[in-house]
Design a protein that fits this description.
The protein is of the alpha+beta class. The protein is built from 4 helices and 4 strands, in the order αβαβαββα.
C-alpha cells in the first residue's frame, strides 16, 4: 500500500476479500451454475426457509429449474457468511432473494436468467 509523506494511506485498489468472503468451493459451484440452477441457503428449523422453499416449488417446476439446498450450519465459512440472513436464494450465480420471496419478482428473475 502506498502512503503519503504524512504516513496516511493513499487511495488505490482496495482488497475486498476477508476471511468470510475468501475463495470457497461453494463460490466456484455458484459461479458455474446455470440459469436453471436455484440455490437455497438454509438451516434446520428455519421457518422462513421452509416457507421460501414451498413458495418457489411451483415456479421451479414450471421453469424446469433444479433446487440445490445448502445447510449453512454444515460449513463454518457459510455459517459465518450468512449468519441469520437466511434464507438466501440464488438463481444461477445471482442473488435473487433474502429472507422473504416476492413470487412475481422471482418469476421475472427466472425468466430473465433463462433468456441470458
Amino acid at each position: 500500500m502506498r502512503r503519503s509523506s504524512q504516513g496516511r494511506l493513499l487511495p488505490g485498489k482496495m482488497q475486498v476479500r476477508n476471511e468470510t468472503m475468501s475463495a470457497h468451493p461453494e463460490d466456484a459451484r455458484l459461479a458455474a451454475s446455470s440459469p436453471r440452477d436455484v440455490t437455497l441457503y438454509t438451516r434446520t428449523g428455519c421457518h422462513l426457509c421452509d416457507e421460501a422453499k414451498s413458495a418457489i416449488a411451483p415456479l421451479l417446476r414450471e421453469f424446469g429449474a433444479a433446487l440445490h439446498e445448502i445447510n449453512v450450519d454444515d460449513d463454518p465459512a457459510l455459517k459465518e457468511r450468512y449468519r441469520w440472513d437466511i434464507p438466501v436464494i440464488f438463481i444461477g450465480n445471482r442473488k435473487a432473494a433474502k429472507h422473504r420471496v416476492d413470487l412475481e419478482q422471482f418469476r421475472r428473475q427466472l425468466q430473465d436468467a433463462q433468456s441470458r
